[in-house]
Amino acid sequence: MDTTQRTDQQRSADRRRRELLEAADRVVLRDGPQASMNAIAAEAGITKPILYRHFGDKGGLYAALAKRHTDALLDSLRAALDAPADRRERVESTLDTYLAAIEARPQVYRFLMHPAEGGGGADQGFDVGKHSAPLLRRMGEELAQVIEERVDLGPGGQQLARAWGHGIVGMMHAAGDWWLGERPCSRAELVRFLADLLWGRLAAAGDRVGGPGF
Amino acid sequence: MDTTQRTDQQRSADRRRRELLEAADRVVLRDGPQASMNAIAAEAGITKPILYRHFGDKGGLYAALAKRHTDALLDSLRAALDAPADRRERVESTLDTYLAAIEARPQVYRFLMHPAEGGGGADQGFDVGKHSAPLLRRMGEELAQVIEERVDLGPGGQQLARAWGHGIVGMMHAAGDWWLGERPCSRAELVRFLADLLWGRLAAAGDRVGGPGF
DNA sequence: GTGCGATGTTACTAGCGGTAACACGAGTCT
DNA sequence: AGACTCGTGTTACCGCTAGTAACATCGCAC
């Protein structure tokens, strides 16, 4: 039958694709985002043109690679976000989940956040701006949806939820990036700091008196 | 005299350097971060090796270029941050200053945030992670300092201020990036949304009832 | 005039992303 | 059986990049 034939081929191609992605994963995790297509092909035991037949170009490969990790991270975040607990608990647990993820696999994190697409040759027309950090965007949209579903924001709440979604994700990301680089405190402390910020402690704190010069 | 001689030379070299930076600026703003050294040299009316004598490598040129814009942006932010007004007003004016800046010159913004260093050839040893988005880091540290100086955070306030500095900057950045791409609302609205978020409106809002399915 | 240092050039290397052209093995049709 | 197609794989190449070496040239002190 024609269908079974096509299915067989497709299955085989999918398996191959997964193998290639795993090889690419190993190389990217070892060499960083500037891993070359040659190196990836060598790691997979094949040569370049096969990679190009499967993924089109380097951007396609990287997008597929990023999608895997992004999906995995988003799954764990969703679990924390949807837990049956009160809001503060959910916020803290989501922050902690994210920080634990980037702490456990900083290389993956670096790859997702700094794809460093600018290759060498023909990808001149690549629009860096539009493609930048899709993980952040996806997390922002996801969070926005959860906020809109579960928090009563009154009229105009949809735009507000989206702004907050992206804003909170950015806060988490930047603070996490700084924390991962300097490790100035424990993970739990940072979680508390950020949750406190979101809980309005900045507005509630008093002005400092006797400060330097003002 | 030896000193005057050296000073003359140095002055001339500095002037040349500035001219080169301005040419690089034009090209980067036109072609995006993946502008080639050849194109920059051509725009400056010279050839590549001179660029390399002045800036070492592409990273050096880009760092010098980024420093200029970063310094300029930080100056305007400092002005908003240090204004003699109450805290909410200062926060809003700082957010607005930042958003106005990225709105006015999105190309500059793209360049600063997505340097896309991965060139082609020999910069394999480049550590992307360490060099990533220095503007965000500098803004974060700057804001942390202001927070620590002007807000009474009690014991352990220094770490808290730094976490908040980086977190707030990240919030501003991610929300601004999203806003710049989609323009879902006016600048003033976004400023109010984010300030509301920092003012604890997330904690104060009620749970939504009768939402979809939960 | 003569050396010397800065400024500039041309011509090159090595490596990148990406592609065209060719080679082989398995299944299908006649 | 033998020709035909099709997916998989290769080698060899293109145009481009960042970066460098070697050579030319100008201005200036001595």
UniProtKB/TrEMBL annotation, chains A, B:
UniProt keyword list: DNA-binding
Top-level taxon of the source organism: Bacteria
The keyword DNA-binding is annotated on this UniProt entry: yes
Gene3D superfamilies xrefs: Tetracycline Repressor, domain 2
Domain (HTH tetR-type) ranges: 14-73
Pfam families documented for this protein: TetR_C_32 (PF19344), TetR_N (PF00440)
Any one GO molecular function term: DNA-binding transcription factor activity
DNA-binding interval(s): 36-55
Listed PANTHER family: HTH-TYPE TRANSCRIPTIONAL REGULATOR RUTR, TRANSCRIPTIONAL REGULATORY PROTEIN (PROBABLY TETR-FAMILY)-RELATED
Protein known as: TetR family transcriptional regulator
Species this protein is from: Streptomyces lucensis JCM 4490
